[in-house]
Write a structure and sequence with these properties.
It is built from 11 helices and 9 strands. A 5-stranded parallel beta sheet has the order 7-6-5-8-9. Helix 3 packs across helix 11, helix 6 packs across helix 7 and helix 6 crosses helix 11.
């Protein structure tokens, strides 16, 4: 039997958000890859996220009565805290599951997520060391699954917040003519996996700068150009996007030393000057100061958009949780347990 939950009348702020939403729904129930996001989805997510950002920490009642689980089987600061705060600011009840769960006792990912799903939660956010875990979970749960980073594969909400940050700066959803340079550990980066897909969809020109040892084979199939010379890559860039060397995935063994890497590919004042005068410096975090980015750029410099990315992360994830949980059309994701 379905029970209809009564909700309080909308506040002025909630009516404002409802007006911005304008009766629109997302085309998906789960988000495991940025490839699922259509152009219409992107416009809707960004429209709503910008308005949520204006209201900062205002507590909305949109998702009252729903529960939310952060299942982070890998460490996280920005993604886990922003999803948790976003859910709370939408009036959701939240709980967390970590790598110290029953997985450490030998339970499978499938059994873990189906156990969580049996609590009748609305959304499960999954981060895993292994690629493909969120996609598998999405096929076996009634809850909506959102990929918060799976192995070397993808991190779609990071790409969404980056897309919002860039489009706000350039003033257009069309990034044709915008040159984005991605510098660093491309090989081990799930951020790259989602970001390159989104930027190509939006029309940007993408260059990558990294040692050959940190570049996937046939990277050009992504529609990017690879430059071993960072100076060549940075020339005339609109966006400089730095990635850290992912030591926890063994990336230190792909470079002579972090000090040598910093000399060759670290973003300094002199290197940033090769890009356009108003070029943005971005980084998904955590920033390894004086390795990926010189300390002077880490947060305070006017060209650094790193903290703006963090702020936009909250807004985008709040937008996604509302839109995916509280559909206008009333259609629900269903999975029949056998």
């Amino acid at each position: 039997m379905d029970v209809i939950l009564r909700k309080k009348p909308l506040s002025d702020a909630e009516m404002d958000l409802a007006d911005v939403r304008a009766g629109r729904d997302l085309s998906f129930f789960d988000l495991v890859s940025i490839n699922q996001v259509t152009d219409k989805d992107l416009v809707l997510l960004f429209d709503v996220a910008r308005r949520f950002r204006d209201y900062k920490t205002y507590k909305f009642s949109f998702n009252k009565g729903y529960s939310h689980i952060n299942a982070f089987f890998e460490p996280s600061t920005r993604t886990s805290s922003s999803f948790d705060l976003a859910a709370k600011q939408l009036s959701m009840d939240t709980a967390s599951v970590s790598g110290n769960s029953s997985l450490s006792k030998g339970e499978s990912y499938l059994d873990t997520v189906q156990t969580i799903d049996a609590y009748n939660v609305k959304t499960i956010i999954i981060r895993s060391k292994e690629s493909g875990v969120p996609e598998m979970a999405a096929r076996h749960t009634n809850a909506s699954i959102i990929n918060a980073g799976d192995g070397w594969h993808e991190h779609p909400t990071q790409a969404l917040l980056d897309g919002l940050t860039i489009t706000d700066h350039v003033g257009s959803m069309n990034l044709k003519g915008i040159v984005v340079v991605i510098v660093g550990d491309i090989l081990h980066s799930r951020v790259f996996g989602s970001l390159v897909r989104l930027l190509k969809k939006m029309g940007a020109t993408i260059r990558v700068a990294a040692p050959h040892t940190l570049i996937p084979k046939e990277v050009e199939r992504f529609g990017v150009t690879h430059h071993v010379s960072i100076e060549e890559a940075l020339s005339g860039a609109d966006v400089v996007y730095a990635l850290r060397v992912q030591s926890e995935r063994g990336a230190n063994g792909f470079v002579p030393s972090l000090r040598e890497y910093s000399k060759m590919f670290g973003i300094s004042k002199a290197r940033m000057a090769l890009a356009k005068k108003d070029a943005m410096l971005m980084h998904p975090g955590p920033v390894i100061r004086d390795i990926d980015v010189h300390s002077v750029f880490a947060a305070a410099d006017e060209q650094s958009y790193i903290l703006r990315q963090v702020e936009n992360g909250m807004a985008v994830r709040k937008s996604l949780l509302w839109l995916i949980s509280d559909r206008i059309d009333g259609v629900r994701k269903t999975f029949t347990r056998k």
